[in-house]
Amino acid sequence: MKSHIFWPFWLIGILVAGILGHRVNPMAYTGGRSRDDEERLRRNSSAIATMLGEFRTSMSDIMFIKTERYLHAGVGYVPHMAESVMTAEQLSEEVDEHQSELGIPDDDHHHDHHDHHPHDPDLEGFELDHDHAGTPTLIPAAERDFRGFIGRLHREVKPWRDPEKAHIHTDGRELLPWFRMMTLTDPNYVRGFVAGGFWLQTEGEDLAIDFINEGLRLNPDAFQLYVSRGFLTIRQYRRLNEADEADKARDRLQAAHADFSRGAELALLERPEQINEDGTGPGGWTTYHEGDAMAAVNMHVVTTRLLGDVEASVRLARIYLEHFPDFVPLQNALNYE
Amino acid sequence: MNAIHLYAIGRGAVLEMLRRKDLAVLGLFMTVYLLFLTAARFVGLETPAAGTFLLNLSLTLITSLAHLLTLLMAARQLPDELERRTLYPLMARPVRRAEILLGKGLASWVVGVSVFTVLLVPTLLLVPRMEAYVPSTLMQTLFLQPVALGMTASIALCFSLLFPRVLAVFLSGLLVFAAGMLVRLPLLAVAARWLPDPGRLNLVLRYTDGIGPLGAADFLSLTVSGLLWSLVFMSAACRIFQERSV
Amino acid sequence: MSKAAGKASAVRVIAKSVLVEAVRRKEIYVIILLCCALIGVVMTLDFFGLDGLVKFYREVALKLMGVSTAIAVVLLATRQLPREFEFRTIYPLLARPVGRLTFLIGKGLGVCAAAAFCFGLFMILYVAGILSLGGDLAWGLFVQHIYLQMLLMMLLTSACFLLSLLFNYDAALVMGLLLYSASGILSSTSLFLYDLTTDIGRLLLIALNYLLPQLVLFDLSEKVLHSELWGPVSSATLATLTVYALAYTLVFTGISYRLFRRRPL
Fold first, then answer.
1. Which residue in A50, A174, A182, A200 has the most chain C C-beta atoms within 10 A of its own C-beta, making it the best mutation to test that interface?
2. Partners for B (CB, 8 Å, 3+ pairs)?
3. Radius of gyration of chain B (CA)
C-alpha cells in the first residue's frame, strides 16, 4: 500500500486529536496554590527552595525569581519582595513611590526610607532601599560562609552585595518582559496581569490598560483586573481634572466607576461567607483578595459620590458595610448623608 | 499483527537496554533522587507550602525522567540497529516491518511506564502531603501518564526515521517538554491546535494546586486525543519504515 | 624530530581528528542551528512595543548558548574513548609510537577546540545580535566570561573523560550532564546543610566542597547581564580561577591516565 492511501486517515486523526486535545486545558482554573503569591513567598523562602537555588518547576516561580533578581541588579536575596503580596491599590502606590525615588516626573511625595543619592559613586542613578537591609543574600557573607576561598570567588563572580547594606533597586523597566512571559505561559495567572499592569504604567497608562484588557479577555470573571483597570483610569481622571479638561475627566471617571462597580459585584460573588481575622478564607481567598475586594467596594462608593450621586453612594456604603462591617472608609462614607 | 512477534521484538529491545547497562543509569538517578528526598526530609519542611513544593517537584521530576528515558530509548532503536547492522538478520525472518517498529515502540513505552512506577512508589511514601489534595485528581494524573508516554515513544520513533539522531532527539524533546510553552509564542500560536503536546496530559500541577479532577468528558477528550496522536505518529513511522530501503 | 616535538605533533594530529570528526558529523552545526532557531523564536516576542528592553533577550541567549556548548562538550567528551574501544579504532592508533597520555591529551584538546569553535560561533552571533538591537556591551566582562567558559569546558572535558573510563557510555553521559546541571544545586545545598548538620557532617561538606569542582564559579553571565552596575572581576580572581580549573583538569586527567593505562586492550 502506498502512503497516499494513508494521508486521509492521518489528516482525520490529526484533526480529531487536535480538536479534542485543544478543547481541554487542565490548567484553566482560577486560583490554585502555584498562583497564590502568599504561598509562593512561603515556598520560595523555604529550606528546600533555598537548597535548589534557581531551579523551579513552576514557570511563574521562575519568573518571580527573575523579577526579584532584575529589580536588585542581579543580587540574589532570600525572597522578601513585598510587591508580590500587595493588593492592587498598594501596588499602585508602590509604583508611584518607585517612580518618585528614581526622579521620574509627576512625583508628589518622597519617602525617607529610600535614597536616590547614594554615597557610593558607582551607584549613581540607582535607588537604594534601606527597608530590607539585613535580608540575607543567597551567597552568604564571608563570616557565614564555610567555603573559604571558594566562597570568596563565588562572591566575586556573581552579583553580590553585603546583606547589611541597603538594597540596590533598578528602575524596573527590564522586569516588563518577565511579566509578559508570565502571562503568556499561564494566561490564567491573574496576579501576573495585575502586577505587570502596574509596572507597565510607568511606560504609560494606555499600555497598562491594554495589558489589563488582555487579561480580562482571558479571565473575564477576575475582579482584581477590574480593580486594577479602575485605579489606572482614576489616575487618568486625576490628571485630566488637574488639567481642567472636565469632559474628558468625567468620561474617565465614569469608566473607572463602571470598573469598580463590576469589580465589587464579582468580588462579593467570589468572596466566601466565612472570613478569618487575617482576611483569609476558604477556597484560596487570600489577604490580597480581601484587600482588592475592599478596594473595589470603597472605590465604587467614592466614584459614585464623585459623579455627583451622593445619595446612591451612601446607599451603596450601607450595603457594603453588611459585608465589611469594620471597614472605616465605608463607615466614613455614611457621613455624607 | 502477530502478538508473539511483537513480544519477541519488544523483549529483545528491553534485553538490549539491560545489556547496555542502562539500568545502572536508572539506579544512579534513583540514588540521587532518594538522596535528594532524604536531604529534604532532613532539613525539614517548615511550612505546608514547602511540603506541596516538594511534592510538586518530585512528581514533576519523575514524570520528566520517565519521558526522557522513553524518548531516548525510542529515538535510538532503529538508528542503532541500522548502524550496527543488526536489523538485517531480524528482517530476514518472517516478521513484518510494522511489527518490528511496533515491538520497539512498545518496549520503549513499557520501560517508561516501569520507570515512572518504580519512582512513584518512594515519592508517595517519602513525601509528606501537608495540604489538602484531591485523590481523584491523582488517579487521573496516574492514568494519563501512560497515555502521554505512548505519545512520547511514538513521536520519538517517527522522528528517528525522519531526521539525524541528534535532531530527532532535540525535536522530540521540544515537543514533549516545551510544546505547551512554544505554542504561546505569537509566531507559533497558529499551530497551537496541531502540535502534539504530551505535557497537556500532565495533571501534576493541578493535583498539587489542590484542584478537583477534570470532568468525565474532558478527561475522555484528553485520553482519546493522546491515543490518536500516538496512532498517527506510529502509523506514519510504519509507512516511512515500509517505504525506506535499508 | 625531537621526542617532545614528536609528541606535540601527535597531540595536534589527534586533536585535529577529533575536531574534524565533530564538524563532519554535523552535530555541532545541528546544536548551533537549533539553539539559534530557539533564540530566533524568542526574538519574535514583542514586549508591549517598547524599545530598549534587551536584558531578557541577552539572558535567554547567554543561557542557551552556554548550556548548548556544555551539552556538546559532554556528548563529545564522553563518547571519545568508548567509541574508540567499540569500533576498535584505538588499536591502529596505539600500535604507532603514540603514548596513552599523548592520546588522552590530544583527545582532550580536540574536544576543547570543538567547544571553542561552537562557543566562538555563538559569541559572534551574540555580539552581532546585541549590536543590531542597539544595546551596549561591557567588553571587559564579556571577554572574561568567554575565557571562564572556556576554562569550564576544559574542566568538563577532563571530568567526562574520567567518567567514561569509570562507567559505560550512557552512565558517563548522564553523570556528565548531572555534574554540569546540578553543580549549582550541590553548592547551595551544602551551604544550607552546613548550619544544620553535626561536626562529622560539616567535615564531609567541607571535603565535598574541595573534592567536587564548583562549576558555578565559571559563569559570569549574570554580571554580564547586569553590567550597568558590575565591572570586570579582578585579575587576581581570574588567575585563581585559572589555577583552580587547571588543578582539577590535571587531577582528572591524571586519574584518567592511570585508569586508561591499566585498561586491557
1. A174
2. A, C
3. 19
pLDDT digits (tens, 9 = 90+) for B92-144: 777 888 888 999 999 999 999 999 999 999 899 888 888 889 999 999 999 99
Per-10-residue mean pLDDT for chain C, 265 residues long? 79 90 81 86 84 87 93 92 80 76 93 94 91 84 96 97 88 86 83 83 90 94 92 96 97 95 78
Mutate to test the interface with B, among C28, C30, C46 (most CBs of B within 10 A): C30
Is B197:B119 a contact under the CB 8 Å cutoff?
no
Q: A77: which strand partners?
A: A137
Give the three cell numbers for residue C207: 571535603
A40 and A160 in a single domain? The answer is: yes
User: Is residue A17 situated within a structural domain?
Assistant: no
Residue A161 shares a structural domain with residue A234:
no
Task: Report yes or no: A84 and A40 within 8 Å, Cβ to Cβ.
Answer: yes
Smallest CA–CA separation between A50 and chain B, in Å?
A: 11
> Does this model's pTM top 0.95?
no
**Helices within chain A (DSSP H only):** 3-23, 37-44, 47-51, 59-71, 88-101, 149-157, 176-185, 190-200, 205-218, 223-242, 246-270, 287-306, 310-323, 328-333
Please give, rounded to a whole number of angstroms, the shortest distance from the CA of A291 to a CA of chain C: 28
- Can you give the residue range of the structural domain that contains A270? 223-336
Residue identified by cell 544545586 is C185
* Set of cell numbers at residue A115: 535614597
> Domain for residue A18, yes or no?
no
Same-domain status, A152 and A258: no
Cα B21 vs. chain centroid, distance in angstroms?
Answer: 20
Distance of alpha carbon C75 from alpha carbon C111, whole angstroms = 10
| Whether A280 contacts A286, CB under 8 Å | yes
Q: Which residues partner with A168 through β-bridges?
A: A128
- What are the chain C neighbours of B187 within 8 Å (beta carbons)? 41, 44
Question: Which alpha helices (H) appear in chain B, and where do they start and end?
Answer: 3-19, 22-43, 48-84, 87-92, 97-126, 135-162, 165-182, 204-208, 216-243
Domain ranges of chain C: 3-262
Whether complex ipTM tops 0.85: yes
Q: Do A165 and A231 lie in a common domain?
A: no
Task: Read off the amino acid at residue B206.
Answer: R
Question: Closest Cα to residue B144, out of B165, B116, B105, B171?
Answer: B116
Contact A58 B239 (CB under 8 A): no
Give the count of beta carbons closer than 10 Å to the beta carbon of residue A184: 18
